[in-house]
């Protein structure tokens, strides 16, 4: 029998010392310090540290998150001019270290890929001409911080059928397709890096992620398992292009994927219905102000872009539900959220509740950033989880104040959703925000970052609610031993929520197995 005793710890909200005994991957007992029968098991002295359930990030794009360290960081650029200067400097550095620069197997210059620009409030407009002036024949692909826009040079555009594109700014589906084609890269090297990135997540107390990468998730995680991935549980999402394959293979949400050691399960079915705020493609009832002078058509329409018409959305969700795939619907704008909720209501009508799980849940809306007041109550009634990324509010607050002026009181409305009985699930949308649930919880609780005044603090939730929306288990006898040991009580009140961002994690257990350990034997 394998086991581990976490001795002399504390539970959140309590000063009483406790022992947590783990046997065979399950919590065998939680009791007063010194009370556990720990014969034959290894012991870790916690010295008053706190034991919490292991953390989940309920929305990531794991491959994109893995690629971040390979890309030029554009997050500090405050204008197109500054972004181009960063590209110019990176190309110069690359040329100095590799002669004329790295080349592909075909002998052409290897693409320079950057990530993280947010142009919504820039004083100038990105264009391919600006990149061409510094890049020449070297392909340059710059991916926006929200993943919904690509800015590319002519040398990057032409080989992929976009040579005649007037601006070099590709949005939504065009961006997704283009990004993957330009940045194919070395799959084996990327897979090996992804295994390490999963281990880094475990160091922050993470035990699981919902990976909504755009395609090939099942195959990718089987490859990672073969390379030794053992640090996280994964729910691997399925997009519409893979529905047929899922049906043929009999894959249903919750099924364990063979070849993954039981750590990877089939996740939800992802459908993207609109865009994002920074790219001004989130589908809203009210038009965006035409601040860049490009007109609404440049961003898909004056009110944003509806990627999937309502009839098609209902059909995709019904098909997924009948296949046993739980819908996870991307909706950011208030109109997109209305249509997504309408589609969940359609499922209730045609399936009579057969698609709901034992808790009465039918699926999730991913992001749920801007909601009308009347739609807030519909989430709970329809069994829809609000899967929200609070750190986006910190990234987008200034943009929202301009493009959603007069409506921001109902943006990232966590408090209203919770008061209406909605199940919350918090995540990062990494790489849009870091894969770090402590940053996520801090944003949900404090509605602030970098010392700024809280943004709509009336929509904050308390620490217990934020933690509850970031875990799947409890520290209790009979529960799966997915645990984290942290230095401070995450529920303890303080003057700000910044202490959550700085939380030190001493150990992480996945099914009773240490995936991160600074405690020593």
Automatic annotation (TrEMBL):
Indicate whether RNA-binding appears among the record's keywords. Answer: no
Q: List keywords of the entry alphabetically.
A: Hydrolase
* One MF annotation (Gene Ontology) recorded for this entry: hydrolase activity, acting on carbon-nitrogen (but not peptide) bonds
Under the heading Pfam families, the entry gives:
Amidohydro_3
Claim: Translocase is one of the keywords in the record:
no
Entry-linked InterPro entries: Amidohydro_3 (IPR013108), Metal-dep_hydrolase_composite (IPR011059), Metal_Hydrolase (IPR032466), YtcJ-like (IPR033932)
Please report the stretch or stretches of sequence annotated as the Amidohydrolase domain: 44-515
Its name, as the record gives it, is: Amidohydrolase
- What organism is recorded for this protein? Clavibacter michiganensis subsp. insidiosus
């Amino acid at each position: 029998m394998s086991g581990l005793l976490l001795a002399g710890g504390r539970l959140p909200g309590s000063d009483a010392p406790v022992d947590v005994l783990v046997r065979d991957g399950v919590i065998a007992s939680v009791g007063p310090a010194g009370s556990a029968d720990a014969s034959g098991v290894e012991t870790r002295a916690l010295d008053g540290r706190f034991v919490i359930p292991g953390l989940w990030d309920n929305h990531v794009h794991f491959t994109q998150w893995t690629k971040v360290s390979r890309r030029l960081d554009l997050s500090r650029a405050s204008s197109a001019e500054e972004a181009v200067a960063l590209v110019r400097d990176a190309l110069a550095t690359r040329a100095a270290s590799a002669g004329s620069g790295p080349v592909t197997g075909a002998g052409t210059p290897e693409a320079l890929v950057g990530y993280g620009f947010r142009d919504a409030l820039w004083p100038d407009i990105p264009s391919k001409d600006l990149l061409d002036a510094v890049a020449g024949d070297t392909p340059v692909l710059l991916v926006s911080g929200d993943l919904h826009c690509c800015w590319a040079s002519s040398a990057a555009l032409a080989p992929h059928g976009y040579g005649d594109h007037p601006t070099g700014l590709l949005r939504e589906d065009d961006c997704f397709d283009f990004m993957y084609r330009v940045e194919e890269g070395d799959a084996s090297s990327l897979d090996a890096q992804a295994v390490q990135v999963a281990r880094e997540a475990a160091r922050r107390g993470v035990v699981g992620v919902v990976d909504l990468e755009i395609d090939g998730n099942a195959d990718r995680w089987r490859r990672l398992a073969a390379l030794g991935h053992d640090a996280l549980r994964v729910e691997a999402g399925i997009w519409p292009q893979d529905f047929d394959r899922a049906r043929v293979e009999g894959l249903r949400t919750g099924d364990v994927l063979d070849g993954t050691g039981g750590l990877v399960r089939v996740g939800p079915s992802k459908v993207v219905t609109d865009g994002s705020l920074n790219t001004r493609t989130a589908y809203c009832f009210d038009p965006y102000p035409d601040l860049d002078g490009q007109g609404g058509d440049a961003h898909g329409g004056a009110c944003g872009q509806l990627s999937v018409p309502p009839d098609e959305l209902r059909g995709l969700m019904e098909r997924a539900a009948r296949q046993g795939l739980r819908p996870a619907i991307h909706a950011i704008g208030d109109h997109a959220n209305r249509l997504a909720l309408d589609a969940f209501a359609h499922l209730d009508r045609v399936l009579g509740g057969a698609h709901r799980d034992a808790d009465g849940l039918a699926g999730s809306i991913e992001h749920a950033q801007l909601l009308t007041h009347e739609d807030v109550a519909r989430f709970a009634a329809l069994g829809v989880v609000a899967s929200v990324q609070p750190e986006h509010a910190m990234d987008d607050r200034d943009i929202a104040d301009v493009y959603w002026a007069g409506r921001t009181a109902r943006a990232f409305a966590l408090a209203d959703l919770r008061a209406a009985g909605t199940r919350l699930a918090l995540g990062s949308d990494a790489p849009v925000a870091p894969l770090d649930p402590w940053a996520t919880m801090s944003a949900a609780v404090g509605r602030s970052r970098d010392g700024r005044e809280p943004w709509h603090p009336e929509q904050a939730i308390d620490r217990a609610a934020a933690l509850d929306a970031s875990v799947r288990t409890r520290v209790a006898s009979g529960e799966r031993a997915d645990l984290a040991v942290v230095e401070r009580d995450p529920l303890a009140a303080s003057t700000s929520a910044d202490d959550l961002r700085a939380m030190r994690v001493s150990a992480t257990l996945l099914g009773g197995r240490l995936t991160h350990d600074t405690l020593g034997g």
